[in-house]
């Protein structure tokens, strides 16, 4: 689900080589390791995963909704659950790194862009935004 979302949603933003590199992070073994470090919450429909959100410390990590399910409120429900958990844990500020595609979504949830950061993978440079939200 995550690889499909990255491949479809990022197609207009990044070159194919970079998209493939992003997807490697979610190969089964890599994701299994990541899932040990990041607390994941998933949304399902008819026993299929249609969305996922993760929390690690005070950071929002791994937030994806399958392209065919976007715009149906799944992301909002996942984010609401995420924020409820953060508040229960006494977290006062959430930090994340968002792609240009994710930035407007995070702004919708009340995040503010703090700065842009230039990154590089497989020789490809790209820019993400560091964003935060006070709870």
Mean pLDDT: 95
What is the CATH level 1 assignment? Alpha Beta
Name the poorly predicted regions: none
* Share in helix: 25-40%
Structural class: alpha+beta
Number of domains: 1
Radius of gyration: 15 Å
Q: Would you list the SSEs in sequence order as H and E?
A: HHHEEEHEHEE
- Name given to the CATH homologous superfamily: Gcn5-related N-acetyltransferase (GNAT)
Distance between the termini: 30 Å
Q: How would you characterize the largest beta sheet?
A: 3 strands, antiparallel
Query: So, CATH architecture?
Result: 3-Layer(aba) Sandwich
Describe the global form: globular
Strand ordering within the main sheet:
1-2-3
Oligomerization state: single chain
Question: Can you count the helices?
Answer: 5
Report the sheet-strand fraction. 35-45%
Question: The CATH topology is what?
Answer: Aminopeptidase
How would you describe this protein?
This protein is α+β, with helices and mostly antiparallel strands and 135 residues long. The protein is built from five helices and six strands; from the N terminus they run αααβββαβαββ. The chain has helices spanning 2-9, 16-24, 28-37, 74-88, 103-108, and strands at residues 39-45, 48-56, 59-65, 93-98, 112-121, 124-134. It has a three-stranded antiparallel β-sheet, with helices on both faces. The mean pLDDT is 95.
What is the secondary structure topology, with strand pairs?
Blueprint: H1 2-9, H2 16-24, H3 28-37, E1 39-45, E2 48-56, E3 59-65, H4 74-88, E4 93-98, H5 103-108, E5 112-121, E6 124-134
Antiparallel strand pairs: 1-2, 2-3, 4-6, 5-6
Helix pairs in contact: 1-2
């Amino acid at each position: 689900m995550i690889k499909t979302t990255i491949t479809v949603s990022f197609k207009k933003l990044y070159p194919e080589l970079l998209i493939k590199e992003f997807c490697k992070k979610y190969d089964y073994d890599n994701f299994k390791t990541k899932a040990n470090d990041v607390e994941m919450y998933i949304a399902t429909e008819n026993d299929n995963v249609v969305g996922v959100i993760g929390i690690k410390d005070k950071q929002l990590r791994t937030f994806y909704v399958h392209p065919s399910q976007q715009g149906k409120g799944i992301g909002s429900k996942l984010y609401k659950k995420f924020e409820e958990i953060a508040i229960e844990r006494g977290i006062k500020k959430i930090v994340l790194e968002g792609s240009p595609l994710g930035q407007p979504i995070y702004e919708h949830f009340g995040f503010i862009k703090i700065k842009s950061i230039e990154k590089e993978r497989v020789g490809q440079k790209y820019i993400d935004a560091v964003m935060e939200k006070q709870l």
